[in-house]
Specification:
Elements: E1 2-6, E2 14-15, E3 18-19, H1 21-38, E4 42-46, H2 57-71, E5 76-80, H3 87-91, H4 94-97, E6 102-105, E7 113-119, E8 122-129, H5 134-137, H6 149-160, E9 167-173, E10 175-177, E11 198-200, E12 209-213, E13 219-220, E14 226-228, E15 245-251, E16 257-263, E17 270-275, H7 277-280, H8 283-286, E18 294-299, H9 308-313, E19 319-324, H10 333-344, H11 348-360, H12 366-381
Parallel strand pairs: 1-4, 4-5, 5-6, 8-9, 9-12, 10-11, 12-14, 17-18, 18-19
Antiparallel strand pairs: 1-15, 2-3, 7-8, 13-14, 15-16
Length: about 375
């Protein structure tokens, strides 16, 4: 069974006031070419189809074009909603479209949606689990106590009665992590306070492959078969060093997995340049790379410069960000004020959860969280 794993398309994304639709259209064309040449049995999109719950008309049209082009290649398409998507909008016409091998799973309705595809080794069960929160699924499990994301996932998987002796693929959009593992995270992702949404990746180890969405960097979570495909484009300058790609997965007989990444090339790369304005504007530096790339410019000049942005844009038209980094300027004031504003709004428990995630690179277990709550409650009583 051969399938393409995509996620976090964020169709309609705007980065630093710059619409990404043209870049996304360019990337989608490359993905369609890979579908034509690789001829996968399925294409999986693991959530965050759009960048916002109510996408713009152009974003909807672009994604419609992409789905149509994909369907024309006679491949099965499976997609789930992410935390950026509107579940109801993703669900629209899903029952009708399933007859056309297009499976849209926008919301959890008490059971994981299963799609079965068959190859020469037998059936492969694809389990489609859209983004869930504990509070959103409590009504489906009134007999269970569900307060954490771990508990929510356990309840959902228990209800599915999955036969792990067969081949199973999970499609999920959550923050999976593993104790002691530092996952790559970026500014373009929504990051809940303290990693309270973290789920132990050990809960999904029995799947033959876990096609994950949510993190924008392509990476595995403790094991090769538990993977984030990452976003197909760079959506923040923290991703400058990332190489974006399509994940091509081949699932042979049980316990036989092949992972291949296929490169994606944007129209304009996203990168950072640093130095004095005179040097950066010299033909020697400008000619080194594409001067029309999306840029973050870090100026090191000590003296004041009149209208530096427009001067730089005369040679670098797509500057997205301009900062000064020198001894005469306090460059971190805005960041500090933002952090302070965030901190004063946090409860003592949230502050500790944030600290725990920073130190351990994973969220607290339910047992640890309960101990912290009890300690804080006793402190309040004193």
């Amino acid at each position: 069974m051969k399938f393409i794993h995509l996620s976090d398309l964020h169709v309609g994304k705007i980065v630093n006031s710059c619409p990404m639709l043209a870049e996304q259209r360019h990337i989608f064309k490359q993905i369609i070419e890979y579908i034509k040449t690789e001829k996968p049995d399925a294409v999986i999109i693991a959530g965050d189809i759009y960048d916002r719950a109510i996408p713009g008309v152009e974003a909807v049209k672009l994604f419609d074009d992409f789905l149509t082009d994909t369907a024309n290649e006679d491949t099965t398409v499976m997609l789930i909603s992410g935390n950026h998507d509107s579940p109801e909008r993703i669900n629209f016409a899903s029952r009708l479209l399933s007859e056309k091998k297009l499976f849209l799973c926008g919301s959890f309705n008490g059971a994981i949606q299963k799609v079965v595809l068959t190859d020469k080794y037998g059936d492969v069960n694809f389990w489609l689990l859209p983004f869930i929160k504990p509070i959103s699924i409590n009504s489906f499990f009134p007999e269970k106590e569900i307060e954490t994301y771990d508990q929510a996932l356990i309840a959902v998987l228990e209800t599915a009665n999955i036969d792990y002796s067969t081949r199973n693929v999970l499609v999920s959009h959550q923050f999976y992590t593993k104790a002691g593992l530092s996952l790559i995270r970026y500014e373009s992702e929504l990051t809940p306070v303290g990693g309270l949404d973290a789920i132990d990746s050990g809960l999904i180890e029995k799947f033959d492959y876990a096609a994950l969405g949510h993190l924008h960097g392509e990476q595995s979570v403790g094991a090769e078969h538990i993977r984030y495909a990452g976003s197909p484009l760079k959506y923040s300058f923290s991703e400058c060093q990332q190489k974006k790609s399509v994940s091509m997965i081949t699932l042979n007989k049980k316990n036989s997995l092949e992972v291949k990444t296929l490169p994606l090339t944007p129209i304009h790369d996203m990168r950072e340049i640093k130095g004095k304005i005179e040097k950066l504007m010299s033909s020697e530096v400008v000619s080194l790379e594409n001067n029309e790339d999306y840029l973050r410019v870090l100026l090191t000049d000590e003296e004041e410069i009149m209208d530096p942005l427009n001067k730089l844009r005369s040679v670098y038209p797509n500057i997205m960000s301009l900062d000064f980094v020198n001894s005469g300027r306090n460059n971190d004031t805005d960041d500090i004020s933002i952090d302070v504003e965030k901190i004063v709004k946090l409860s003592p428990y949230e502050l500790f959860a944030e600290f725990f995630l920073d130190i351990q690179s994973s969220g607290m277990t339910e047992e640890q969280a309960e101990i912290v709550r009890e300690i804080l409650e006793k402190e309040e009583e004193l």
